[in-house]
């Protein structure tokens, strides 16, 4: 972790850490000892001015102009649904899923391997990730889309690789992200995106469930896949129509939601009334890492 922060301060930002205030977005279920260790490194190795540790779903909601709602964030290593009420993530109702951005890239790698294309080096995996972002999509009807590509050859794209080679990409474009709705296609035994969000909301008090269904906010790189929002809205509406006919599901898909946590952090960090909530270097020197538990529970 120390090497990572050194790279950030001196190679990326080119700023002296001793004059820096650091706001760090973390996973809502991150264990306390990680936060303490991070504070220890930042204050003792880099002598930063002050630190604020914020839970990512709260920052995502700030970016959307809300203080309450449920965030579905798809990161590189995992995804999760986290309800947030008045700025506080509800830990007991946070539900994680192994369906991640990296897993979708691995799924695309597997699909290409079956057609004779091999992507194995780190550079080639980056190319796969770019293909996923640029041309993958989620159809409204998966079975119908399979029939179209098989029978009429529709939807195929001639993609140019960085070395100038051309490859024809067809049903892989939608078979890859379909895992978000059918995890079993990738051999996963877990709920899909709708299951994850509904389970999270069901773990909340009954009086807040309508609020969360009305304020579903997407975040993360894979949430940008074309067709995801429309398909999700269709699927969750079908699901809640049976048991919750009086509830409407509304999804906020911000245009640059892959940066939502960062955007929310920049908004929060600029608020003057946040001043007393930062952990200063003097506070840390007086109380050590135990102060982190009190400040950022």
TrEMBL record:
Coiled coil: which residue ranges? Answer: none
Q: Which Pfam families match?
A: Actin
Q: SUPFAM superfamilies from the entry?
A: Actin-like ATPase domain (SSF53067)
Domain of life of the source: Eukaryota
Family statement: Belongs to the actin family.
Matches recorded under PANTHER family:
ACTIN
Q: Output this protein's name.
A: Actin
